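Hi Y.,

Following your request, here is the sequence exactly as I used it, all 181 residues.
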Amino acid sequence: MTAVSIRPYQPSDAEKLYEAAKESVAELQPFLPWCHPEYMIGEARSWIQLQVEQFRFGKEYQFVIVSTEGRFLGGCGLNGIDQENRRANLGYWIRSSETRRGAATAATRLLVSWAFDNTDLNRLEIVVSTVNIASLRVAEKAGAVHEGTLRSRLLLHGVAHDAVVFSFVRKDFESSSWVHD
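Below is the corresponding structure, written out as tokens. Let me know if you'd prefer a different format.
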């Protein structure tokens, strides 16, 4: 598995985010509508600026996935935070030239550890279209618990998709062996 680290986005990441997104449009756009052929550097800058603020106020936690050599590999994060129920959505993506090397799996594990060590969240959910085979594999390999398939759960480009729901729950995490690897 690829050794990676995660860190919060910084304004200086805009160019690298832009380059990774442009490289990966064909693979990401079907599942991540923000990544589109006309994606502009200004969109990357604006999004990062918002994420820095959101992170500071605990509204979202978005991270850069970085290789041991410092290469920008992609992103992962927690959004859709439901404070009342101490739940959040967990997502991830890897630039096309770096897929199939375990980076998303490693980053997901790091993000789960970070979330349970640094927030009071009790449940992290991964919701993946049934046709997004790569993301389904990442959730499974990262150790998320498969909970079931929800019909018409995601709307992507105006089309309803069935989605598989996976979760990480704090009590399971605290007793799991992979945390202490």
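Residues 41-56 form the longest helix (16 residues).

Thanks again,
Q.
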